[in-house]
Amino acid sequence: MTVKSLSGAKIRQVYIDYFLDRGHTMVPSSSLVPGGDQTLLFTNAGMVQFKDIFLGTDSRPYTRATNSQKCMRVAGKHNDLDDVGQDDTHHTFFEMLGNWSFGDYYKKEAIQWAWELLTEVWGLQKERLYATCFKDEKREIPTDEEAAEEWRKQPGIDPTHIMFFGRKDNFWEMAETGPSGPCSEIHYDRGEKYCDLQDVPGHVCQVNGDCQRFLELWNLVFIQYNRTDATHLEPLPATHVDTGMGFERIVSILQDVDSNYKTDLFAPIMDTIQDLTGHSDSERAANLTPYRVIADHARAATFLIADGVVPGNMGRNYICRMIIRRAARFGGKIGLDDPFLARVAEVVINEYGEFYPELSRNRSAILSNITSEEQRFQRTLVGGLSRLEVLLTKLQDNGDMVLPGKQSFDLYATYGLPLEITRDIAREQNMEVDESGFNQSMQEHRTASGAGGDFGKLIDEGVEVYRHLLENLQAQGTLGIEGVAYNPYEWLEMEGHLLAMLKDGKPISEAEPGDKVEVLLPRTGFYVEAGGQVADNGIIRSVNDSSNARSEAWQIRVTDMRKPAAGMIVHIGEVEIGTPRVGDLAIAQVDTRYRRDIMRNHTATHLLHAELRAVLGEHARQAGSLVAPDRLRFDFTHPQALTSEQLERIEAGVNVRVLDNYQLNIRVKPLQLAMEEGATALFGEKYAENVRTITIGDDEPFSYELCGGTHVEETGDIGLFLITSEGSTAAGIRRIEAVTGRGAYEMVQRRSKTLKSTAALLETTPEDVPAKIAGMLDELTQQSKLLSRLRQQLGNLRMLRHMDRVPVVNDVPVLTAVLEDTDAETLRSMSDVFRQRNPSGVAVLGSVGSSGRPIVIAAVTEDLVKRGLHAGELVKFVAGQMGGGGGGRPTLAQAGGKDAGKLKEALASVPGWVENNLKNE
Ligand SMILES: [Zn+2]
Ligand SMILES: [Zn+2]
């Protein structure tokens, strides 16, 4: 086969088919948002979705897997952002091909297959390939002779191309503790001319020599140890294989091009950018960095949004925002000033949509989110850039080359300029940004706004206790291979012996009233929190019959559930009565009333989801949910607030579905089949091979979701569905809260009571309350108009009294007065009255406004302005004494103060000021 003719898509397929033929299961790429993993911002390797298998907390129905995994490396330890655009090989988003063995095949097969695929199937020249193996430079961990031996057996391999490297290159660890093992890397020699370090003194041109000549193609990790602390490795009972091959890189080699951007994975994207700019080929070549950044970032943003990560201010959403804005800014550098990224994203969707159908499914959400983010950025960009210019120039003038972190944070907070863009611009002027200062300001800001940024620990420290417990119980035959049996759908009441109890994370044999305990039973129907549905409540109590040896009654109230390790489920609760002992026969009862409230709310979220899509469009997709007994919360993607008309339609629509009383159809089927049938899956959720599906609607289902939650049998069980609020949680994400069943009934009751008592107060019927209140509001308006007229008249009267005796300073009448209960407008009209009566004079009128702050108006007649009196200065002088300020025209000015207690004293200073400032004619 001539490999040059292979398209990227075909290369991906050949890889997967090769391993399918060798007994592997194709496990679709997991979401870029790691499911249930709080330690990772983004999925950054193929093994992420299998991590729990290596940790021993999860198991799968297959022992061999293969796929192409979507990955992002843009933050944290693996951060390639700085290199993206600068070279031909770094990307924020990339694909990783992989094959895995979970306690199945090991080094022999992994190495043999890797060699065969590269050399026989893909026809790479054997003399260009190198294999590395692990040899510990500290001589603490054994050399991986086993792998080296396998390599030596491969047909046509040059034995001198089998090399040994130390911990940095050839030993893999998941974390500071946990699974680890040696690895073997396969490198490809592209030829001497690719060495970009030839002129660097001391450069040894070889594998791991850091130049562009030798490319690492494939990493085969052999997981065989469990690291318990910094110095101890224990052999694992089962060994695993975890491999990863950079997809873009292998495509560039097989298509024989010197840049990932020249492969057919990127070429159509690059060409589209050229079409948009109208560049000639030489102009394109001269602007390679912007082209690469735009192509890379547009591809990343497209995949992110398809996985539900929309632009926003925090965490993953921030990354999505940042890469769109960064691409937009690089677009600006090559003349793309109007929003253009959606045009590029469209090509990404077309090129990748077949293998990653989520792209095509979410086409409109991807395009609209990208464009509106570009528009948001444009609105603030100019302000941000010019502010940054000012800051940088100032620093340079002072010989300072580092922009303080606080300033770069303010640029983000005020102008939406992400740190990464500020840094780009600073670097273009050979300056740097204090990034730790930025992070500190960001942290302070988050703490101030109450948002946490902490990712949890990778491994729950207590997990070992549960694993040992499980192993012991399995060894005794008390628990089967699957561990605790779990069926929340059918078992609301079950009997069994107390297998174990834990208090403060340690096993105990007996508990006292008041003890907070975790209780292990052989099986349970108590729901464990998942998919937004909260855990069940209930009780576990002693069985009061002859088989109970002690016949002592005890009871534990269960308030939460937990799954601390694969196969383990514990009830969390408090002993209310008696002293439960391990071995006692017990009965566990789910609180069915509490559970039914939850089921109503859960089924209602499915109806709501379907109705949102029907009313708002297909882009309205679930972005999170909470199903509690007293309420439900549903987050979904939608760019703007819902109108009250839309909310009414949605609420009415759900209630129609409730009253039509559809039977829920619940089936378990293969994931693949459910996806093909168009079931709605959630972002970031890990699904097993076989999934539970919930379908509603008899012949024409209107709701079809993958869901492990508990549901009512018929929609009529929901009773009534009422929306209680609608709001926003992040840019592009709306949240609806609602109640059903008992909650809805209680709300209606409460509102009805309020309405009745309001009607009683108003001495009318509930129906007439609106009319009555409208009438009262009318009356109130009339009254306040009358009141303000009366105030005006009262003010006039007082003013006239003051004007009867206006003191004279030199030859000038100077009136100062405090007019109670008067607003600024009245003060102004009073000063007019003064000027009508006094063709020459000064008036300063003060009052304390309704806010409790003093206001002052000063009026000076024209003739006195000529003699050096200025109302603006006068009012400033007066207000200054009350902690305030103001100003205005020479003839009329207004000011406010802070301290009302100083008003009289301040006014008393006016005659003196006039005397000092008055010039004689
Ligand atoms: Zn070199
Ligand atoms: Zn559900």
Question: Which key phrases capture this entry?
Answer:
binds zinc ion; single chain; globular; nine-stranded mixed sheet; 921 residues; eight-stranded antiparallel sheet; 27 helices; alpha+beta; 34 strands
Please provide a written account of the structure.
This protein is of the alpha+beta class and 921 residues long. The protein contains 27 helices and 34 strands. The strands form seven sheets. Strands 1, 2, 3, 4, 5, 6, 7, 8 and 9 form a nine-stranded mixed sheet that branches. Strands 13-21-18-19-20-16-14-15 form an eight-stranded antiparallel sheet. A six-stranded mixed sheet has the order 29-30-31-32-34-33, sandwiched between helices. A hairpin with a 3-residue loop joins β33 (885-888) and β34 (892-896). α9 (288-306) packs across α11 and α10 (315-333) packs across α13. The protein starts with 7 loop residues before the first helix and ends with a helix. One zinc ion binds next to loops.
What does the secondary structure layout of this molecule look like, with pairings?
Layout lengths: L7 H13 L4 E2 L24 H5 L8 E9 L20 E10 L4 H15 L7 E6 L10 H8 L9 E4 L1 H4 E3 L4 E12 L24 E16 L2 E15 H8 L12 H11 L3 H6 L1 H19 L8 H19 L7 H12 L4 H5 L1 H35 L4 E2 L1 H11 L3 H10 L3 E2 L1 H14 L14 H14 L8 E2 L6 E5 L2 E4 L2 E3 L7 E5 L2 E2 L13 E5 L12 E11 L2 E10 L7 E6 L1 H25 L5 E6 L4 E6 L6 H16 L4 E7 H6 L13 E7 L6 E4 L14 E10 L2 E8 H22 L6 H36 L3 E2 L2 E7 L5 H14 L4 E7 L5 E7 L1 H4 L5 H10 L4 E4 L3 E5 L6 H6 L1 H8 L4
Parallel strand pairs: 1-2, 4-5, 10-11, 12-17, 30-31
Antiparallel strand pairs: 2-3, 3-9, 4-7, 6-7, 7-8, 8-9, 13-21, 14-15, 14-16, 16-20, 18-19, 18-21, 19-20, 22-23, 23-28, 24-25, 25-26, 27-28, 29-30, 31-32, 32-34, 33-34
Helix pairs in contact: 3-4, 7-9, 7-11, 9-10, 9-11, 9-13, 10-13, 11-13, 13-14, 14-16, 18-19, 22-23
